[in-house]
Specification:
Length: 146
């Protein structure tokens, strides 16, 4: 099975989690292929032609994101990329990461993307994730693709 992923990684946590997913696939699902594309502000927009999952961390500057506004920072390029052309029509769902210390703001960007692009909010993991997170999220992606 082919699994396409778009992601952004500011501190390296999301990139690390994607690598864990690739390692898991290699060890447990050798017939699966994970194609992961990291999106940054330096990347040109492309027209996505295949379905994909989005992995996004939460970085906020100002507001609490709940009742007094929110200003996302550093992940905007990914949101703009998804919004480009028909790219959003290929999004199968969003997986969020963050730090649970931020309480209601935990994975807020992923929740907002899911709402903005009218796609499922699939799962969360904290920071670089655990092996259990990798197994669970991998299975979630397989379930969506089935």
């Amino acid at each position: 099975m082919k699994i396409n992923i778009l992601f952004t990684s500011i501190e390296g946590n999301t990139r690390s989690f994607i690598e864990k997913l690739k390692d898991y696939a290699e060890a447990h699902r050798p017939d699966d292929t994970i194609n992961a594309k990291e999106i940054s502000e330096a990347d040109p927009f492309d027209d996505e032609t295949e379905d994909y999952f989005v992995f996004v961390p939460t970085y906020l500057d100002g507001g609490n994101g709940i009742d007094n506004g929110v200003k996302e920072l550093m992940t905007n390029a990914l949101g703009e990329y998804i919004d480009y052309g028909d790219n959003a029509t290929h999004c199968l769902g969003v997986i969020g990461s963050g730090n649970r210390n931020f309480n209601q703001q935990f994975c807020l960007t992923a929740r907002r993307y899911a709402q903005q692009f009218n796609v499922p909010f699939l799962d969360t993991y904290e920071l670089r994730g655990t092996s259990r997170d990798v197994e669970r999220i991998y299975q979630t992606m397989l379930d969506v693709l089935a």
